[in-house]
Structure prediction request, 224 residues.
Amino acid sequence: MRSREIDANHPSARVIGIDLAAAHVAAARTRTGTSPTITVHHADLFHASMEPASFDLVWSVNTINHLADPVDGVRHLAKLLRRGGRLALGQSSLLPDMYFAWDARLERVTNEAVRKYYRDRYCLEERDLTSVRAIVGILQRADLRDITARTIVIERLAAMDTATESYLRDAIFRDTWGSRLRPYLADDDYAELAQLCDPRHPRYALRRPDFHFLQSFTLVVAEV
Prediction:
């Protein structure tokens, strides 16, 4: 989130970051260092001490869909904004990602396994996951105005830079997929997925010369 002073003409600009995950906070603090204009808090947004109508911009990515009541969450964020302030909600993968361009079937069953895992972990029904696709409607129901949306496609080919490979290997292959999917996949499918995700295996996907990755990112912006 940013306060009113964030502007090229205001050197006293301030940025305040809030995250519930300690690991995310630690990573953000590493990047921001000792900057006097950036503060990162380890806190629950709904219980953080922030004055209403004190920000010009609230930026939130891949967060609203995790809330039990997304509309209430948006209204809470909107209260932090001054009149005319903007709320920007980002969401990745509203369109299906492509990881295994050469095997659409394995990609499909893997993505469905992820959905089943999260439904079981959080005791959700399929309809409970629809908020990830409904950002525009959520903003409308929260009575925000001048809503705009734009989707871009992130595309990578082999050979990738180190940062891209690290993201795919750690955030997707290990932390999103990994051993948690074993109960949700047929034995042969899990074995094949494990090989493709293992940097030590000759079939490791990120070393294939035909590796082609697509992921979408949608940004929806509204004013209060």
Notes: The CA atoms of residues 114 and 181 lie 7 Å apart. Helices lie at 22-32, 70-79, 104-121, 135-141, 162-177, 187-196. Residues 2-6 have pLDDT under 50 and may be disordered. The first helix runs from residue 22 to 32.
